[in-house]
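Example record for the data management plan.
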Amino acid sequence: MFPWWLLGFLALCPASLCTNPGITGRITQNGLEYGRQIGMAVLQQKLKSIKIPDMSGKEKVSPIGKVQYSLTEMQIVSVSLPKSAVGLSPGTGVVLSIGNAYISIKGNWRVKYLRIVKDHGSFDLSVSDLTISAGIGVSRDETGRPTVSSASCSTSIGGVRIKFHGGASWLYNLFSKFIEKALRKALSDKICPLVSDAIGGLNPHLKTLNVLAKVDRYAEVEYSLVSPPVITKNYIDLDLKGEFYNIGQHREPPFTAPPFSLPEQASSMLYIGVSEFTLNSAGFVYYSAGVLNTNVTDDMIPKSSPLRLNTQTFGVFIPQIAQSYPNMSVKLIVQATQQPHATMQPSNVTVEVMGSIAAYVIKPDSTLAPLFVLGMKASTSANLLISGKKLVGSVTLNGLVLSLQKSYVGPFQIQSLQTVLQLALKSAVLPKVNELLKEGFPLPTIDKMNLVNAQIQILKDYVLIGTDVAFTGSPARYSDTAKARVHPDAALRVVRLRGTPLKL
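Corresponding structural encoding:
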């Protein structure tokens, strides 16, 4: 039985509708192994729940003649699945194989023979060398979520042995082979339907895949699958849309997702590649929502700074300001004039923001008098990390290029304002940005799935997240599968590298 958390990433779409993904995921053999542990624990419980119907019949047994028998109250005592494997059939799907399985059953027997002789007692039944082979089919529902079904199933029972206790058990053991044959068929008929039901029972879990994940009051990100999974002998690659939208208004950005592929890495259970397209679609959404702007006033500048947002400071660089508006505060309106654009290179992500800075004097009657409007090209870098199930970050300013768009106080040297405006951005704008970036955005996950020992690499055109997984309440333990590098606080561990902000 293939694990539902892996299948949560798999679905098919018609080739004519498939597009390049914004996010690509890869499930490795380590991920399959962890899923196998979960699957075995679940299947073991399912097998224990098999209900074996009462049986009765007649057999001719020498030397006593015809014996009427009945077996009742049969109950599975234990199930052992010591040997199992999950594998990939390239281009086809997932196959689960179980071998050397053992089932122990107990029940009651009752017999009648020679017309008047009756006897009863208990019995033990052992089923050995049980093998199960199951294939799982994956499809997609109308919401973009995956559904699963049993594609194939076969079973083989190597041995069945029954032993009677109580009464003349020694005598009834003589015709045990007849009963063993009947019980073998009864069990064989039960196992594959049970496996099929168990696979179908995964679908409620698959519906928890966050196909449309809310980010905040402005944005949501779509994680529907856009192309069939690529199944190789070593891993499953899958493509997710990975596109931000304004909530309630799914408008496509004026750019498309270029193709990208993941590197040949396999040490983690799961890899998630988040492309430039995903982050740039976020920039498009927030720019379209009109939220990439902020006001900066003097009370937002550190008290220790000798540079203030007032006409005295600006008057040092532009004397006309101090002459026309003595001892007044200055207000800056900073806004993006184009959507931010992210670029990713190895170990570094930069975001360029084209915008404007409009300066106003706050007059004693609280009205505003315009001073100037500057064009702004800001270059930023950020640290990215995984927090819980989110990709979050913080931003720093790399550089600032200013150009004069309009002056209400006569000509002046733009570069003379570089220091004070950089201070305003670093002291007032970036803290607001970082407060928002701390919230981040949710990655594609299924309910109760946690990312463990997550690590981030910045590569050309995308961010690669390598992570193991663990499930809350899972019968399989992460430590059973994880490699020797497991950190004591693995569930919370993050690796900080250079990255990019999501919005300004």
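Summary line stored alongside the record: Residues 57 and 69 are 6 Å apart (CA to CA).
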